[in-house]
Amino acid sequence: MKVTLAMKPGPRSFIPIEAESIVPKNFLAGTDLAVWRGNRELRLDEVFSVSVEGDADRPEDVEVVLSGDDTFRLKRVGEYMDGGKITVLGDIGMHCGNFMSGGTIEIHGNADGWLGREMTGGTILCRGDVADYCASGYRGGRKGMKGGSVEVFGRAGDFLAESIAGGTVTVHGDAGDMAGAEMHGGTLIVHGDCRRPAANMKTGSCYVYGTAQGMLPTFAKNGTVQHEGRTLIHFTGDIANRGKGNLFVKGYKYLD
Amino acid sequence: MNELLIKNACVIDPLRGINAETMDIAIRDGRIVEEVSGAAEVIDAHGALTLPGGIDSHTHICGTKVNFGRYMSPEDMRAGRTPRRGPLHATSGYSVPTTYGNSYRYSVMGYTTLLEGAMAPLEARHTHEEFTYTPLQDTMANVLFDGNWGVMEAIRDGDIKRVAAIIAWTLRAVKGFGVKLTNPGGTEAWQWGKNVSCIRDPVPYFEVTPAEIIRSVVEANELLHLPHSVHLHCNNLGTPGNYTCTLGSLGLIPDLNRKRQTLYATHVQFHAYGGSGWRDFCSKSEPIARFVNMRPQIVMDMGQVMFGKTTTMTADGPMEFNLYRLHHDKWSNHDVELETGSGIIPVIYRRKNLVNSIMWAIGLELALLTKSPWQCLLTTDNPNGAPFVRYPEIIALLMSKRYRDAEFATVHPDTAARVPLPAIERELDWYEIAVMTRAGQAKALGIQDLGKGHLGPGAEADIAIYPLRIDEVDPSTDYRKVIEAFGRTEYTIKRGRVVARRGECLVDGSNATFWVRPKVSDAYDMGKDPDFIEKFDRYYTVRMRNYPVQEEYLNRNRCIETEAAI
C-alpha cells in the first residue's frame, strides 16, 4: 500500500504541526487521522491531499510518502514506528523517528533536531544535513539510541549521538561539537571532522575519519590501527569517567 | 455561615482516645463544633473509616533544593503529567513533582498539613513562595541551624542564651516553624572539603563538636518554648556501622519537656546500619528501637525506603557527595553561606541490590519494633526513601505479615541473614496507623492545641474519609484493599470544605503557613545586638535589613507567639 500525503500550501506560517499519527501501521485502518497545529486539532485531509494506492494488512507493506514545500513544519513523524516505510521528499521537522523500533525512514532533504532520538531499531537515511541531537537521548535521559542505524549523507549538528547506547550512526560529512558525548555503547562513524568527540564516553566505538578538533586530554593514546584501509590513531577513555571506550581518529588537535 | 455535617463516620481519633466509634461530625466555618443547624450540608460516610487529616512531619516539597531536584531531572518531569482541568493546574513530575503535583497528590491521599523538613534561612523566600502554590495543605518549615556561624560561636563561648536568641531572631526573620539540625557541624566541615565522623569530632575553625551543637540547641529550643522539639538528622547518614553514632546522639538528650518529646530524630532508617563496610552491611534496627522504647523524650520517623526511582536531596552535602561517588550519575552541590549547604542526586532503589533490600527492611523493623506508635512516625523522608505516593503500600506492609512475607520473597536472597524482619510477627492495627500518620505528628510538632490532628470541638475541620469499612476488611489478608483505600480518599475535607473526592481534587484551595515568633527580652533581641549586626554585615552577602522575609511572601499565615525564658 502506498499512501501519498502532499502537503497543501497553507498560509505562510511557521507553527509546527504535531504529526505523531503519521506512522505506517496507523494507515492500515484508513486515513481518518488527526494532527495538531498549535492548539487546534486538524483532520489529515485538512493539511494534506491524501491518496492511497493498493491495500495492505501488515505495517511492513505500507509506504507513506510525504511531499510539499512545508514538510519541515511536521514534527514527530514516525514516532514509535515499528515497520513499513516513510519517505520524505523534502525537509522534515524535529523529532522524526522518535522511539522507532523497526522499518525505514528516508529523508531526501534535511532533518531538524532530534532525528531518531532514543530509537531502538530500524533504519533512518537522511540525504541532506541533520541538525543537533541526531540519534541522541532526551533532556536528562541516560540512554540515547539503543539499536538500529542512522545514516546521514550531509553534515550533522552538535551533540550527534549523545548518550548513544547501541546501534550505528554514520555521518558522511562533518559533525559539530560534542559528537558522541556520554556514549556508552554502539558505534559512531564520522567521515569528516568534528569537535570534542566522545566526551565522557564509557564504552562503545567512535571513529573520526577526519580531524578531531579540540580533542579532549582525558583519552589515553594506544598507537595506531588499520581500519578499512585507513590508518587511525587509537585512544581509550574517557578516563574522567572511568571509561573503557575506543576512539579512533585520523588526526587530532588539542585545544591550545 | 458555612455548615457541614458528616454522618455515620467510623472515627479513629487517637488524641482524644476514640477508637472506631460511629459518630457524626459537625463543622461550622472551617472548625469542628458540637452541633450544626438543620440547614447544614450533609455527607453520609456510610460507616467509612474517618480520620483527622493526614500530617506529614518530614517531607521535602518546597524550596531551593527541591527546585534544583526539578531542574536537574527533566526526565523526572516527563513522568506523571496531568493536564489542566477545571480549577486544577497542570502537573508533572514523579519524585520531585511541581508544587501543584505535590499538593494534589497529598490531598487525594487525605493529607492536609505538611512540614518542609529543611529550609535554609537565607533562601527562605523561595520556600514561602512555593508554599503559596501548595494550595491544599497547611505548611510549615523547619529552619536549618546545623552550620550557623553565630550559633556555633555562641556554643564555643558556652552561651546557651545567645544560641536561643539567634534561633529566635532567625525563626522570626525567615518565618520558620522549627529548628532543624542536619548532620550538625558536618555541612560546615564540608565547606572545608571535610566531614565529621561522629559526634565527638570538632568542626574546623569553630572547634565545637556535633555533640555540643546538639546539646546546646536542644536546651536553647526549650528556653524558647517552641511548639516543636529540635528536629535532628544525625551525623553519618548512610554509612555502614552508623548506628553507634545514632545511639550516641540520642543518648545526649535529657527529658526536658512534659508535653512532647525533647528530640525528633528524623529518617532513622538511614541511621540504623551495622557492619564495618558494604560487604557486611546489616540492620541494627533492634538496638535503636530498644533504646527509643526506654526513652519517652525521643520520637523518630521511619524514613522508609521503597523500591523504584527517586531523587535524594538533603542539606547533608558531604553525604550526597559520597552517594555520588557510589552511583556516578548526576550530582548537585550547593553552599549556603554562613548557614548550611545541600546536595542532590537521583537514585534507583532495586530489589536485586542487597544494600537496598536491607534498607527497605530496616524502616519497617523500626516501626514494628518500637512499642509505642507515638514514637515512630510514618515517613519516607519524601522523596529520599521514596515519593510520598508510596505511603499506602507502607501502611499495608505494617498491617500485614503476609504482605511483608510476599514482598520479602522478591528481595535479594541474602537479606534474610542480615535483618530481623522475617521474625517479626507484629501487625499494626488501624488505631496505630492513625497515630503514625496524623495524631503522632500533631503531638510531635506541638500543633494539637492549634486544632490539628484531632476531631474535637474547636479543631480545624481537616478530615479524611477513606472508602473502607474496618469491620469488613481484614488488613492482614486484604492488604490490596488497604493500599487502594489509603491511596484515594472518598472525601478529603480541608478547613470545612471538600477539596478532594475519589481521587479528584475539586478546588484551588488556600493554605496557611504556620510560623513561630518567640518573644524575647530586649537584651536578647539580636536585631539590636551590636556584635551580631557587625558580624552579619561583615560576612553575609546580604544586608541585615534585607534578610527577613516580608509578610507579603506569606499567603494566609498563622503566627504562633511563644514566651521565651530569655
Walk me through the structure.
- The complex is a heterodimer of chains A (256) and B (566).
- Chain A is mainly β.
- Chain A has a domain at 110-254.
- Helices cover 2% and strands 40% of the residues of chain A.
- Chain A is built from one helix and 18 strands.
- In chain A, the strands form two sheets. In chain A, strands 1, 5, 6, 8, 9, 10, 11, 12, 13, 14, 15, 16, 17 and 18 form a 14-stranded mixed β-sheet that branches. In chain A, strands 4-3-2-7 form a four-stranded mixed β-sheet.
- In chain A, strand 16 and strand 17 form a beta hairpin.
- The model of chain A has no long low-confidence stretch (mean pLDDT 94).
- Chain B has 566 residues and is α/β, with parallel strands linked by helices.
- Chain B has a domain at 3-52 and 453-505: Urease, subunit C, domain 1 (Roll).
- In chain B, 30% of the residues lie in helices and 23% in strands.
- In chain B, strands 1, 2, 3, 4, 5, 19, 20, 21 and 22 form a nine-stranded mixed β-sheet that branches.
- In chain B, strand 16 (332-336) and strand 17 (340-349) form a beta hairpin.
- In chain B, helix 5 packs antiparallel against helix 6 and helix 10 packs parallel to helix 12 (354-369).
- The longest helix of chain B has 16 residues, at 354-369.
- Chain B starts with a strand and ends with a strand.
- The model of chain B has no long low-confidence stretch (mean pLDDT 93).
- The chains are: A mainly beta (256), B alpha/beta (566).
Write a brief caption for the model.
The complex is a heterodimer of chains A (256) and B (566). Chain A has 256 residues and is an all-beta fold.
| C-alpha geometry of chain A | elongated
Structural class of chain B: alpha/beta
State the distance separating the first and last CA atoms of chain B. Answer: 43 Å
Query: Gap between N and C termini of chain A, in Å?
Result: 57 Å
Largest sheet of chain A at a glance? 14 strands, mixed
Beta-strand residue fraction of chain A: 35-45%
Instruction: Label the overall shape of chain B.
Output: globular
Stretches with pLDDT under 50, minimum 5 residues of chain B: none
Radius of gyration of chain A: 19 Å
Question: SSE order of chain A, as H and E?
Answer: EEEEHEEEEEEEEEEEEEE
Cα-based radius of gyration of chain B, to the nearest Å: 22 Å
